[in-house]
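Hey, resending since the last one bounced:
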Amino acid sequence: MDGGADYAGNVAFFSFLSLFPFLIFVTNLAATFEETQAASEVIAWGLARVPPAAAEAIRPIIDDVVSKSSGSVLTLSILGTLWVSANALEALRAGLNRAYGVRRGRSFFFHRLQGAIMVVLTGIVILIVAVVDVVLPALVQFFANDLALPDFVSPLLAFGQLVFVPVVMIGATVILYRFLPDTDHGVRNVLPGAFLAYALWLVLAAGFGYYIRNFGDYSLIYGSLGGVIVLLLFLYLAAAVFLIGAEFNVVLEEEAAETKSASADKG
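The structure tokens again:
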């Protein structure tokens, strides 16, 4: 896709900008309900899913954020997260519109409102996934050791934990492919790209981690900023994976249209 690298770069930049406002929001919201430990567990869960070099670079900043909670910061973080994260979604929208060959068709206010709603829903989904991923292992262990339940219960819960995160990630990708671009596409039309994007995400997570551990010592070039550069590069590649999935949907739709047209001509 022409310009895909530029769109991926925009998404990576705005995603990085929205990271800390979102973390401030989560930790201060948890502190409001006296659940700071729960917020720390969610943040630890998130750090475990980014490259270690990046996690080490931003962990001191996050620890400092967690230790400073205030209602004013909470309010500012809500506004900052909604605005900056909406910018990241706008970059994704522009990339999807380019992939589907459509122009910006809806108003600025509609885009901003839709972006704010999607940011809130994304935050909720992230928290749910993190909590389920943290709680389910303890739940499985509890059922296995402390309750006289049928033997199939523990494997069933373990299987649920295994498939929960992929189902949520693929579902979230489908929602973005379906509603973010300024054109209408059915769920069936965007499912293939969502599955491809998730498969490429798995390859990226494994391959990027291996590369950083064995070949990518960015601290030699960027010094103390090496971890930040690694995180930006990871976000950039993740955005590229998302846009590749959308482009895959476009190719399938074009092939289906050509096949239908050829069949109509023969008829």
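Residues 4-266 form one domain.

Sorry for the duplicate.
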